[in-house]
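Lab notebook, design round three. We kept the backbone fixed and only want residue identities now. Task for the bench partner: fill in a sequence for the structure below.
Input structure tokens:
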């Protein structure tokens, strides 16, 4: 069921820009090792996948990327990175853990952060070292306009060459304490999980390290069931 639902089965693969949009709507907010997106995840679902398709969606403002499980490190090929629909960007940012504090950042990274706060989005050549950029990406604090920025950081980490053609870098929204936004974000995540898996249950959350607690999601699902939008019950076994 899941191989067909997520378009991994050969007969269910999608094509082109519209196909990629549909796949990213399913994988909205899901973190994958940075290099894994274009090495395995997207090519498994999109027939004849081309990186230019993802670039197009990012630069058109339809799709964004970021780390939603921040850590103090730098970007390597295994760093968890999420792709998400820009329309849901605030929801995913509001649900992430704000545990990273600026005191843990290097001096170079803090200097870049301050420059972005005072001057807005800037190109890599205006910001400083690739290592400091990677540190801020890993901390879930910045991202670039296009996915090319992440590709460039991965290449720089392995080949020690300067990041170029990455577009502009900018600050990501801070997690919000707004209760109304939090409720909307929970519903966004609950609906996304249904779109991702077709059937949602508590044990499935082991696949979702950034998921809200099950009790919160279940509250949303009960509300959607009461509206007649979804079906609930004990009708699945052998997970």
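Proposed sequence:
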């Amino acid at each position: 069921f899941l191989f067909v639902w997520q378009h991994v089965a050969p007969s269910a693969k999608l094509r082109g820009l519209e196909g990629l949009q549909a796949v990213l709507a399913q994988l909205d907010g899901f973190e994958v090792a940075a290099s894994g997106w274009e090495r395995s995840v997207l090519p498994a679902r999109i027939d004849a996948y081309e990186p230019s398709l993802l670039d197009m969606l990012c630069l058109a403002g339809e799709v964004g990327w970021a780390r939603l499980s921040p850590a103090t490190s730098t970007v390597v090929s295994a760093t968890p990175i999420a792709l998400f629909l820009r329309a849901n960007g605030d929801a995913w940012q509001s649900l992430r853990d704000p545990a990273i504090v600026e005191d843990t950042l290097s001096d170079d990274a803090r200097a870049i952060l301050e420059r972005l706060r005072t001057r807005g989005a800037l190109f890599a050549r205006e910001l400083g070292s690739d290592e400091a950029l990677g540190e801020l990406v890993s901390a879930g604090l910045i991202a670039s306009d296009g996915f090319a920025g992440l590709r460039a950081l991965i290449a720089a980490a392995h080949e020690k060459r300067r990041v170029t053609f990455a577009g502009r870098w900018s600050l990501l929204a801070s997690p919000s304490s707004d209760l109304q936004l939090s409720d909307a974000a929970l519903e966004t995540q609950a609906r996304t999980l249904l779109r991702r898996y077709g059937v949602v249950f508590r044990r499935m959350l082991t696949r979702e390290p950034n998921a809200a607690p099950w009790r919160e999601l279940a509250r949303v699902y009960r509300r959607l069931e009461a509206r007649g939008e979804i079906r609930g019950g004990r009708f699945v076994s052998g997970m």
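Keep this in mind before ordering anything: The beta strands are 14-15, 30-33, 46-47, 63-66, 80-85, 122-123, 142-144, 168-171.
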